[in-house]
Amino acid sequence: xxxxxxxxxxxxxxxxxxxxxxxxxxxxxxxxxxxxxxxxxxxxxxxxxxxxxxxxxxxxxxxxxxxxxxxxxxxxxxxxxxxxxxxxxxxxxxxxxxxxxxxxxxxxxxxxxxxxxxxxxxxxxxxxxxxxxxxxxxxxxxxxxxxxxxxxxxxxxxxxxxxxxxxxxxxxxxxxxxxxxxxxxxxxxxxxxxxxxxxxxxxxxxxxxxxxxxxxxxxxxxxxxxxxxxxxxxxxxxxxxxxxxxxxxxxxxxxxxxxxxxxxxxxxxxxxxxxxxxxxxxxxxxxxxxxxxxxxxxxxxxxxxxxxxxxxxxxxxxxxxxxxxxxxxxxxxxxxxxxxxxxxxxxxxxxxxxxx
Length: 356
Ligand SMILES: Nc1ncnc2c1ncn2[C@@H]1O[C@H](COP(=O)(O)OP(=O)(O)O)[C@@H](O)[C@H]1O
Ligand SMILES: [Mg+2]
What we know:
alpha/beta, 4-stranded antiparallel beta sheet, 24% strand
């Protein structure tokens, strides 16, 4: 059971969710997940890599949040941090990941990553689908065996009932002939069907939050549209919150209520989707929006609105990390200090010296 941190219960120092001397953790009722000032770093011989570097955002119950940004900006490490599956040479070094759980709030950042509490949350309360279904499924077992195992791990049902539920969820994700395909091995299914099976497995315990990390990058455009449509309708039907991670702004505009833009581990802009598309503030966001492929133009006709490449994370620029690529670069300002988060409109924040 989650310790109710909202009530500020006292805990022994050995408790897996000791607060480390901080105050009470408070969240409003409508917020499901509140990530606050989160930093996750990797430590190696080359130095410290600040994959996630002081990021804050909320996900409301039933909301769809998009996290966008070029490759290497920290989107996946953010997701891994929430689920506490960051590889062992990486570590959450600061911040809070508050989850509304049972009748209280639990700070996932403080949990033992291998403890019972996070294992009871992972898959059942917060679930994840990955870009590549092969990373979710073992090749040695049928998809049915694997979905049934997840169901039985979190719910007290017998094998027969779990199988009925697995068939039901496969049907809901649009798997043809679910009574037969439940016994298929992952490699026997097409890419699109494997993707659906992975979504079925992630949804099998009715999580409150599904995190989808580039869920459609590995499939072709037609299947991509079907999968997105499916996730949206299931999200609505199951009253689930959804975090969609993508580098594709078109996916964001189709699906999301809110958007957070990341650059080199920073949350550079955060706004309601409609506001972000009509009134983008950060030069990086503006660049990303101009990089949307032209209609009918195919991949090759992408407009290159942002010059240069994401710098090496071991060699972070001083000041604002975007300044070497920024068309609005102000020498002596942007390369000197990191811009703080400023509020520029209702629920709209940005980290950029232009707005200070
Ligand atoms: N397991 C890892 N070990 C070391 N560095 C990693 C690891 N995973 C990601 N990184 C680094 O962390 C940064 C953020 O990566 P990632 O979250 O995967 O980016 P995105 O998902 O936005 O493409 C990158 O610089 C990446 O090289
Ligand atoms: Mg990624």
